[in-house]
Amino acid sequence: MKKLLFQFDTDQHPSVFDTVVGYDGGADHVIGHGGLTPDNIRGLVEGAIFTRAPKDKKNTAIFVGGSDMVAGQALFNAVQSHFFPGFQVSVMLDSNGSNTTAAAAVAKLATSGVLTGKNAVVLAGTGPVGQRAAVMLAQEGAKVSLTARKMERAVEACHNMKARFNVDLTPVEAFDNEARAAAIENANIVIATGAAGVELLNLEQWRHNIHIEMIADANATPPLGIGGTDMMDKGVVRHGKIIWGAIGFGALKLALHRACIAKLFEDNKQVFDAENIFALAKAMA
User: Is the omega angle on the peptide bond into residue 223 within 30 degrees of 0, that is, cis?
Assistant: First the structure.
């Protein structure tokens, strides 16, 4: 019985990255569908849940991806709304790598120091990875602020994460590097989750900060999000701070992503979203 992974993507073209990891995670075939919404998903879900006998349904799974996390969450929920007893398959949400990347970054930070009670700032945190990283830090007991160039975007992101996870995040407007430097003035933990190739802080804006204990940068495209760090940093100490670069924690991200895919095929009732993906990341870190 072939292991079939159906890749349901909210973007027009399903992610090549997610396709590759789907195969590396153990799927025999990855079948991608793009441009999906809650309104056009029903027939595809029914095709997945009705075609195999109960004992064989574990060999069919659904992966929800795409660049828009809000759209992905809605699609993820819609997929499950068409399940009913005896007719469901395992499903995973990882829009733009949001869950696996954030989980790997925060899990590695947790191996480097205490998160509970610390002041954490997620720079440029309104994207999928930033929002989920902020949530995971908050769930670990940190006091988390999330920055954006416009306050309304920061407020919206914090509101969305409160609605989904019931965590309190503080929105901060930080239009440029100087504003971001001010935002991290009292931070113990800094995570950069901005757009590829955009420097959010330069070296001088963080290296003399006596409060910062740990930094993680999710950007692997030069210039990096945090100047003076290296994408290969794996808990390296620079200027008295522990640094994790995108490739440094990226090995865990890929291993985690593959492990989640493999678990989808253990039975037909697996549901992987932020909570259990993060739990697995901490166990693997």
Answer: yes
Q: Give every CB contact of residue 256 below 8 A, 6+ residues apart in sequence.
A: 100, 103, 104, 277, 280, 281, 284
- List the chain domain ranges: 4-97+252-284, 101-249
Do 116 and 142 meet the contact criterion of CB atoms below 8 Å apart?
Answer: yes
b/e map of 208-225 (b: 16 or more CB within 10 Å)?
Answer: ebeebbbbbbbbbeeebb
Partners of 144 in beta bridges? 120
Closest CA to 278 of 109, 78, 63, 60: 109
Confidence of residue 45 (pLDDT cuts 50, 70, 90): very high
Q: How far apart are CA 26 and CA 81, in angstroms?
A: 26
Cβ pair 3, 59 in contact under 8 A: yes
- What single DSSP character describes residue 26? T
- Residue-wise pLDDT tens digits, 121-178: 999 999 999 999 999 999 999 999 999 999 999 999 999 999 999 999 999 999 999 9
**Nearest-angstrom CA–CA distance, 149 and 136:** 22
CATH architecture of 4-97+252-284: 3-Layer(aba) Sandwich (3.40)
Q: What is the DSSP string of 42-83?
A: HHHHHHHHHSS-GGGGGGEEEEEE-S-HHHHHHHHHHHHHT-
Both tokens assigned to 59: 């060999």
Superfamily of segment(s) 101-249? NAD(P)-binding Rossmann-like Domain (3.40.50.720)
Largest CA distance in the chain: 62
